């Protein structure tokens, strides 16, 4: 289990590993048990959890006490409520954790190339500010996800990132690679989030076999890690 925002005591921000088992909801009853076991390991017992359905969209939803366990058609969740735990699952996409420890707002984003290209990072920060977050105190942690060493793209995707050419590498064999984490960090800096408030995991899920990787493993049933964030009461 990986922990983020370690200097703060009043937050749970964690990410599972392969040994915790696949966490993507597939209608499999075992997944519920596995998620429950992981939450317990993270110290989240008997608390409200809210999941994002994840459509590779750019939508952000506010989670509250009335929210269902699964919010549909969203890839990003935010809340100002303590004791509500936000969850997304990823396997190569980047889990992005947001925390404003001063104004008590958290967020969690499932960030793949499509959502990133369509503004999910900017949308999440904007929505956090709408419910009380402030740019100067928002901290962000990018968890493990596919790195620039393995995120190969075709030209059609490249066109969506023409403002971010510094994060594109072209290899001699004509292959094109994109640095999604670099692009997210750049977007956060463009939003005026402080450089020292951004931590970026250098772990590539394709390279590091302690994680599931969709591109590496090409499983018939999606296997994914779970990311969880919530403020302790
Ligand atoms: Zn890699």
Record the strand order, biggest sheet: 1-2-15-7-3-5
Task: Tell me the fraction of residues in β-strands, as a range.
Answer: 25-35%
Helices and strands, in order, run as EEHEEEEEEEHHEEHEEHEHE
Quantity of strands, as a count: 15
Which spans have pLDDT < 50 for at least 5 consecutive residues?
none
Structural class: alpha/beta
* Distinct small molecules: zinc ion
* Overall mean pLDDT: 96
Walk me through the structure.
21% of the residues lie in helices and 27% in strands. The protein is an alpha/beta fold and 233 residues long. Strands 1-2-15-7-3-5 form a six-stranded mixed beta sheet, with no helix packed on it. Strands 4-6-9-8-10-14 form a six-stranded mixed beta sheet.
Short recap of the structure:
The protein has 233 residues and is an alpha/beta fold. The chain has helices at residues 29-41, 113-117, 120-130, 155-158, 180-190, 214-217; strands spanning 2-3, 11-15, 48-52, 60-62, 70-71, 76-79, 84-90, 94-100, 105-111, 139-142, 152-153, 168-170, 176-178, 198-200, 225-231. It is globular.
Question: What are the key terms here?
Answer:
233 residues; alpha/beta; six-stranded mixed beta sheet; 6 helices; 15 strands; 21% helix; 27% strand; binds zinc ion
Question: What is the topological layout?
Answer:
Elements: E1 2-3, E2 11-15, H1 29-41, E3 48-52, E4 60-62, E5 70-71, E6 76-79, E7 84-90, E8 94-100, E9 105-111, H2 113-117, H3 120-130, E10 139-142, E11 152-153, H4 155-158, E12 168-170, E13 176-178, H5 180-190, E14 198-200, H6 214-217, E15 225-231
Parallel strand pairs: 3-5, 3-7, 4-6, 10-14
Antiparallel strand pairs: 1-2, 2-15, 6-9, 7-15, 8-9, 8-10, 11-13, 12-13
Bound molecules: zinc ion (ZN).
The site of zinc ion (ZN) has 6 residues, from loops.
